[in-house]
Structures are given as structure tokens and as C-alpha cells.
Prior knowledge:
2 copies of one chain form a homodimer.
Chain A: H1 5-17, H2 22-31, H3 33-41, H4 47-57, H5 62-71, E1 74-77, E2 104-107, H6 112-115, E3 119-123, H7 130-145, E4 149-152, H8 158-168, E5 173-176, H9 190-199, E6 201-204, H10 214-226, E7 230-233, H11 241-251, E8 255-258, H12 269-276, E9 281-282, H13 286-293, H14 308-316, H15 326-333, H16 337-349, E10 353-356, E11 359-362, H17 364-368
Helix pairs in contact in A: 1-3, 1-4, 1-5, 2-3, 7-8, 7-13, 8-9, 10-11, 14-15, 14-16, 15-16
Amino acid sequence: MNTDERSLAWAFLSHVAQGPSPALSALIDAVGPVEAARAIREKELPTPLREAALQRGREDRSVEHLDAITRCGGRLVTPDDPDWPAFRFLAFGGGASSAPPIALWVRGSASVSDLCDRSIAVVGTRAPSAYGRYVTAEIVSGVAAAGWTIVSGGAFGIDAAAHRVALAEGSITVAVVACGVDLPYPAAHAQLLDEVARSGLVISEYAPGVSAAKQRFLERNRLIAALSEVTVVVEAGHRSGARNTVKWARRLGRQALAVPGSVESATSVGCHSMIRQGEASLVTSAHDVLAAAAPMHLPFGDSSDREPDEVAVAAALPTRGAGVDVERIAQRSGVDAARVRAILPRLELQGEARVSGLRWRRAKQAEAS
Amino acid sequence: MNTDERSLAWAFLSHVAQGPSPALSALIDAVGPVEAARAIREKELPTPLREAALQRGREDRSVEHLDAITRCGGRLVTPDDPDWPAFRFLAFGGGASSAPPIALWVRGSASVSDLCDRSIAVVGTRAPSAYGRYVTAEIVSGVAAAGWTIVSGGAFGIDAAAHRVALAEGSITVAVVACGVDLPYPAAHAQLLDEVARSGLVISEYAPGVSAAKQRFLERNRLIAALSEVTVVVEAGHRSGARNTVKWARRLGRQALAVPGSVESATSVGCHSMIRQGEASLVTSAHDVLAAAAPMHLPFGDSSDREPDEVAVAAALPTRGAGVDVERIAQRSGVDAARVRAILPRLELQGEARVSGLRWRRAKQAEAS
């Protein structure tokens, strides 16, 4: 357990802020965490901090919180830590809630900065359609197989589907939650969050024991966007928290992506609206998502050298499961079955496609390269 | 029958050009149709015209063509005619095939310029899905009910669905074809084209008897775009003629619109690609199409004064059929059923919604205003 003076100060400051606090961040930047904590304890505060922090300022629960995070197998990651993903927060703009977190309470032993170095947020409605679940699986499996971390919010629906598919791929995933990482929230996801923490991370900017609240979900959305290269919304209704995450992604200078669907589906209304308003770019596949996240590191070759049919067929290859037949690839790519039959052996020679019986899938080495 | 000297000259020039010809258009602009026709007959041609026009230049079939167009109940509309939709072609840019037509061979008695004054092109794949047919019906019925002409290409699939729904709405529709308007092409659409010509128009820039050919389909697409305020692609595959029409719409300074669909559907691949590339804007309803075509003349009120839920519910009301129930409107709009129940009576008071039993639809007067 880390109980040196600075750690105790960070734990105290994190709980005093209970979310983003530009004024507190500025104070810490100016005088350091130990002095900032002393100033708060002794009520020597700059005006903007006085009202917000004084109530909680009286009780110092830093020892208790550091004890709790250790007991649930976690730690407090602070800007002192080499694991602090500082570069990710550089883009934070102005505004009341746009400050970086004071510190991160983290469950799981993986490195925060490593995991978040190549990460993609996949979020969406709590009540997805079968189509939404299917597309989540397709996109997450493709993105995870290419070596990217899936970040989501641990909520019902698209969030849970994204975490589960990543875990099923044997891939690591990060759940950013709106309460203490020691709390099983939602209760039905206690086991899912345990599994996420086993290989990946459960992250929160709230101290252990802090319960979820409306404002914290919005602040949590900002953290999801900040920890990810791009944010993908698979399905979102007319009013959806996913739109808030997209707003954050854009404010942080990151790309927001949205998946289209039937114009009759209420769970695609939010995605269509974001695409129409220019808030998010349309994506239809893991290939599109990877192209947006890292256009220089596409999992298969340089598509500029290729004819469009070849790119379309390569993008239509599933990255998991037993593979699919030529007819299905033709359907998914929009390329004639006869052309698909001509293109697949070429992709196989290039090490990008693999065949078993009549079923084709993307070759693993191509994904990770 | 119009057999004065100028009409004969226009008929001759139209057949000599057989499609757009910037050089011939320039010659006609400079010396008038009669003198241009004489120059071609007597081979006194400017260099750019010599090769292209001389073969056909020898035979003058203008009397025969004017006779044929009269026999099939049509006429030749020329730039001399007050019905010439000249304003529509002002935006034509440079390039080999971007000239306005020399003249228009027209079947049907309706006015070309009147019909095309408020017109929307609805085009797409020859092999649509059930979803594509359904969305075509929804969009065309809404747009037609608001008093707009539906322009399409008379082809199989989305084109035919668009014409049929417009006719079923009791609305006029225009088929722009890639052959002489006297030819039933495709043969299976002979009756459909007859019906289109009865209330609306079948239009071609090719003289009677000229058969359809690949280049003419592309030139025809340019004419569809030029005669319409906006072009909507409902469904389009990976390679689709609809994309060519969209290219023309944009080149002519008009908006192109595309409908999204399932990312698994081959018939939405082209639409998604155009939206992603910024070639077309995403639309999900007749309301979206009308907003793009005439943002100042929305069929229901000024949406800027309204809360988003009210706009969404109004847009979800069907314009035809017996209407739909609250649950269905909730599903289509993405608004809670309880809120839909609160909003509908308000829309009814404003004269925009009409109820019969438990089924709601858009009020007719609201559409046409």
C-alpha cells in the first residue's frame, strides 16, 4: 500500500474534487499536491475552490480509500506515476468539466498508459437491437484482433456487448465507470467487471465507495473519450448518453464515428442524426474504424494500391469465428460472387485471408501487423 | 405538327448531336438553329464538330422524327419554347458531356417547366431489397404529397418503385429515358411508361427510334440530376449508376442525398460510401428530403421553433395509408410513447396530424402548404 505523503495527498485531493475541477487542477499545478492538500485542509483556498471543496474538505478519508483500492486489487494512478496517461489529456480544452481527472482509481494490474496507447471506445444504447449487438460483435472483434484495446462504460447494452466480445477474443478491455471501482455497478455486471479487471482495467476518477450519480455519468463519458483514439457509437436512440461521449471526443480533438442502420429503427436515430449533423463520421466495419483510428496502420496492406473490389472483399472477411462462404462475402462487400472467387485466392497469397473448407476469414498475422 | 423551319432545324440538330454537344450548343448560340442546321448539312463546320457530326449529318430525318413524336402523343420542346426549362441548365459546368440538351423529346401533355419547378429525383439500384422498396414508398409518398414531382429513370427497381408510388399517390411523375420516348424500354415497363406519360412526362434528349446505349444512360443520368432540385439515392450497390447521377447533381450545384441501411446489406454499400465520402448527405425520411430541397418551405411549420421531440414525431407521421398507432410512431421517431401521446394532440390542433380511431397520419393540408 502506497501511504507516502504525496499518495495520501493525491487520494485526498481526488476525493475533494470528486470529478474534474479546473480550479483544483490549477492549484495543484501551481503548488504541488501536498501543499494543495494542506491548503484545503486549512481552508486557505483561492475563491473559486472555496464553495465547492469545503464541505468534503473537512473529512480526510485518504487512508481509508487507499486501503479500499488495495483490498480490491487496485491502485491509485496519479500524475506522479510513470503510468499516468498524461499525453492523452493534453487536448482537454477549457470549460467547467473539461479538466483532466485529478487522479485515476484503477482496478486490475495492467498498465493504464500501455492499454490506452491504442484504444478505441465502443459505446451505445442500453437497449440495443439484435442488429446493434451483431454489429458491435463484428466491429469489436475486428478491432480487438488488430491489437486495439476496447474502452467502454460497463453499462447494459452496447457497452457490455463490447466488453464481452473483447474478452471472448482473448483481448484486453477497459471499463470506465461512474462510481468507485470497488462497487459492482450495475449489480448485474459484477462478474463482467471482475473479468474485465482480470486482464484489463476498471477505471474511475471517483474514490472507492463513491456511488454512481447523473453528473458522474457525464464526467465518465468525457474520460471514455479522452482515453480513446476514436469513439464509435454502434446504436443510439433519439436521446442517448452516447451523444454526450461523442461531444467529448470532438471537443478533445478526436474523431467520433457512428454506425448507420435501418431508418425505421429507433436505436439508429441518434447515429443518423449525428452523421447528418456532421458530429460523427459514418463507419460500417472494423476496417473503417481502424482506418479512422490509425490511417497509417491499416491491418491489411495499403488500400491505395488496390482496386476497390479487393479492398471491399478484404474488409468483408470476418476476423473471428469459423469464417464465411463466398456468397456471404459477396453480400457483405457488394462485390459479385464471381469476382469474390477471383480475389480471395489473391488475398490468401498475400497472407491476408485464410480458408478452411469453403469458409474464409481474415488471417491473424495480417490483423496484427 | 410543328413543321416550321425552326422546329425542323431543332429536330435535325437534336438527332445530329444525339446527346450533349458543347460545340454544337455553342454554334447554335452563335448563329441560331436554322443557320447551324444549314452549316451542318452543307459541311461548313467548325473543327470540333466535323468528326462527331458529319456521319449523321448526311441524313436529315427531322420530318420523320417530328411525325413520330406527334404520333406517340408527344412534342419536341426546344429553347424557343416558353416551356423550355432553361433556368435548370444554367448551372451546367464545363466538360465534354456537361452541355445542356439541344432539345427535349417529350411524351405527355404536361408542362416541362411546371413539372420540373418543384421536382426531386429518386433513384437507386435495379435490384432493391424489401427495405429499399419500403423506404422508397415512404419517401416518395411524403414528397409527392407535399406537391413535388418525382423524377426518375424508368428503370427496374427503385426507379419503377418511385414512379409507381407517385402514381398511386395521384401525383405526377417524370421518367427521363435513355432512348427515344416512343420505345417501350425496358419492355416490361411499357405500361408503366404509358401511365407516367398520361399524367406526367416521359422525357428524352434522343429522337424517336434511337435505342438505349451505355453512354446514353450516363447522359440520361445528368438530365435527371439537372431536372431536379435534389437527387435522393435510396439503395445503391458497390457499383451503381445512381452514383453517376449523384456526381452530376453535385457538378450541377445541387444537393445529393442518400438513405442509410444495414451495414450488412449489399444494396446499401453505395449509399454508405457516398455519405462517408461526403458525396451525399444522409437522409432518413421525406421530411429530411424536403428540408434539403426547400428548407424555407417545410411541409410542417418551422422546425426551429420546436422542440426536437415534436419535430421527430411530426416527421414520423405517415403521409399515406390508414395511419399508424402511437407505438409505431414512438418506434419510428425514437421518442417515448408517453411523450408521443402528449405531442400528437398538439400537432392535431396545429392542423398537421389527423387521427382516425387509434391511427395517426399527417394532415393533407399541412403537406401541401
